Amino acid sequence: MNAQANETQQVPEGFRIDAKSRLVPEEQIKEIDKLRDELVLSIIDRACELRDQLRDFKSDVFSEIEAFVQTSAQEYDVQIGGKKGNIQLVSFCGKYKVLRAISENITFDERLQAAKGLIEECLRDWTTDARPEVATIVQDAFRVDQAGNIRTGQVLGLRRLNIQDKRWLRAMDAISDAIQVTGSKSYIRIYERVGSTDQYKPISLDIAGV
């Protein structure tokens, strides 16, 4: 019997453990149930093996890209600090490219509430008829998502509005000061060019996309 069936309980020879953690003699189990069990465990074994291979692949790729970046920097006598930032590498033939993407997790501290107060002052003074689109954008930016979290992208997007009101500019400064980077996630994305076009399609490493 496959060892993954139960990792903590010793299973005597001739028995299997059912879904309620009971020992069941082999002779009392229907053949179709045995076949189903063996199929599922076989698939799980192969899936775990692939998962481990993907984990190793990701680790190796990150290390190899970082080593290449350092080699490239040394070629031009440039010192590159840290591992932050996206790197895009394209094959000589132009058919393939590899992207190392690092996405930061951003939250806001209490200064976001100060920014919101300043923005609300602006909205109260501006007539609705003069700037209805701005009011809509601001109200949408400060709505929370289904999990109750501030939607970071929408709040940061307010800084792109060309508004010169001093209170607005102070609010934008408060938003910038309120930004807290709480961590980051790293990704590897691999692409293949579509025919002779300039478009690239991802080479999927997701089981649902292959």
From TrEMBL:
This protein's name: DUF3164 family protein
Species whose genome carries this gene: Vreelandella maris
Lineage of producing organism: Bacteria, Pseudomonadati, Pseudomonadota, Gammaproteobacteria, Oceanospirillales
